[in-house]
Amino acid sequence: TDCRLLRLDRETFNHIVKDAAAHKRERYESFLKSVPLLASMDAYERGQIADALKPVSVAAGEMVVKQGEPGDTFYVIEEGACEALKERDGGEQEVVMSYDSGDYFGELALLRGEPRAASVRAKTDAKLLALDRRSFKRLLGPLQDLLVKAYLVFTRQCLVAATVEAVVNGRYHEANLIVVVKVDTWSSVCVLDGHSLTCEKLMELSKGSVELTLSPAAWDKVNRGRHVIDQILDKKEVAYGINTGFGMFSDVIVAPDQLSQLQVNLIRSHAAGVGPPLSRERTRMLLALRVNVIACGHSGARPETVEKMLAAFNEDCL
User: Fold this and answer.
1) Fold adopted by 188-265+281-315
2) What confidence score (pLDDT) does residue 232 get?
3) pTM, whole model, 2 decimals?
C-alpha cells in the first residue's frame, strides 16, 4: 500500500546515539560518585563501570533474586529500597538486611561462586543498575577486599539473627552451635596492571593464598590490543605470527581457515620439557608473570584467554 517513511541519515543517527550514550554515562558517573564502595576509584574507572551498567526497574514486592539460585549479576540501587530475606527451616522468610539508594547486593554469589545466599525483594518501586558476571570481575576486581569485608559483615548479621531466633524459640543447643560457627576468611587480592608487580609480591603469589585479577585499565589495554589483531585479520593484512608461519617459515602465508590449527601447532611444538615437573609454587609464579605481561596490552591476546588464565590460577588448576 502507499506509505510514508521517515528517513534518518547516518550522521544524524550516530549523533543521536552518541548523545544518548554520553548522557547515560554522565548521569551514571554522577550517581556512582555517591556510592561509598566506589569512592576509591578514579573518574576513568567509574566511567568504565557506567558504560557497562544496565538499568533494571522493579515494582514493590517483586523478587529481584531468589535464595539458592545461581548468581550472575551484581546490582546497585539507584532509586528506591530493597530488603534481603533468608529462608528458615520452617520455610518462613526473615528480613536480614535492608538496602537503600547507593547500596548494592548480589556480589556474594559472584565472589564465592556459590548459589544466592539470600533472596532480595523490592520494598518500593525501584530502579537498579545491573553488572553482569564478566564485567563484575573485570571492573570491580580491585575492590574485592572491600566486597569480602561486606560479605563477612552480612554473614555475621545472618548468624546473629539465627541465634536470636533460636533463643526466642527455646532451641538453646542450636543457638550454642550457631554462636561457635567459624566464618570463612577470604584470601587477599593482587591486582595486576602490567607494571607494578614486585619480586616480593610474586613470592607471595607463589603460596596460593592470594586472589589474582587485573585492574580496569589493564582490561582496557587487553581489549584494545585484541582490537588491533581483529582489524589486521578483517583487512586481510599480513602480520608475522598472526597469519604467517614462524622462524624460517615467516614468509609462508597461512590461509584464514587454518589459523586456529596454526595456534594449536604452536602450542604443541612448545609443549615439551625434560627433568622433573616444576613445583606448584614456581608454576603459580610463571602463570602470574604471563598474565602480568599480557596485562600490558601488547600481546593481542583475547580477553577470554586472560579470564581462563586467571581462573586457572585462582582455582589452583595447575
Assistant:
1) Fumarase C; Chain B, domain 1 (1.10.275)
2) 87
3) 0.47
